[in-house]
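Entry 14. Ran structure prediction on the chain below.
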Amino acid sequence: MRTMKTTTRLILIACLALPFLSACQKEEAAPAAVQAPLTAPTTNDDNAWGAYLSDVVTRNMEGVTNNPYLYYLPAEDSEGFEGSYERLQAEVGTAMQRGIVEGNLVAFGSPASAKMADIVVAAFANVDPTSMKGVKVLFIGDAADSERVKAAVTPAGVDYRFIEAK
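Output, structure tokens:
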């Protein structure tokens, strides 16, 4: 009999506590305030560009199941630009030839939009058709460069998205 009273009390306490627990969970599940998107830097500051590109990539992660790849090329007037350009061109070319698996996002962005577009076009020239189905490719740059990038990456079967750096 004593066990039955104890069990009944425990059930009653649990029933009384349930609304409080669910209210706490609802508060925790409330969405955080959404920050306004960053705007593209008007300077060639690498840190500002890094923050901007990270923000754009973060906002375009829907459907991505793996860590994104972000390729950044500094401004053409930065010290050592030619070396940076050549290293990035080799790195991107190698990565695209190896292939990117479904569920990944590959983002390209730079204050030197035309030069970044050159890198993307050259890298995708050696990619097998339809070998990157399910991969999202973001090109963050000038509208003038979007169509040639799109023409280069589309045969690989990617989900191409252009984000104007503004």
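Residues 2-27 have pLDDT under 50 and may be disordered. Will compare against last week's run tomorrow.
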